[in-house]
Amino acid sequence: MGRADELLSEYGTTYAAEAGIKLSDKPQPLYRLLVLTTLLSTRISARLAVAAARELSQAGWRSPAAMRASTWQERVDALGRAHYVRYDESTAQHLGEGAEFIRDRYHDDLRRMADAAEADPRRLEKLLAEFPRIGPTGAQIFCREAQAVWPWLRPYFDRRALDGAEKAGLPSDPEQLAKLVPGDELARLAAALVRRSFQR
Known about the structure:
mainly alpha, 13 helices, 64% helix, 0% strand
């Protein structure tokens, strides 16, 4: 077993998979990934962000329309149940604003955002950063995960993933890394490298 395979085995769970999102190129799972990205885009642990994404999903807010139908207080309460408390009020506000933004800009379908990006990852990053709360780091998180279902993003390894590659003794060049695993495993490899980057 090569080093990349070992990393996949030990760390290769994407944030989406951890949050119970079965990612596919369809409006609902892509929106749930966007919500997860919003939750990850604060100075809070990934564990709490994933727990909050699960809580919001269990509350039934798996689509922009459902999120818009929820109240700010309901969202605050759901985030509180997941112990996502430091940013609960501002995040509840941003989730509501984001649900309105996706309606107005993309008619509740993030595949329209992919079309607008015209197969340019940098352009997609800029479009993602237009959403409330999602800055450059959040945009990179979304792209890392979305390459699982949008092949035109591959290979997508941001600085955090490349730092992990360096720590693991793997190439720090995206094209070289992409040769280590099949294309449909690149999102998992990126996730594994990010998790590895946090290890000493």
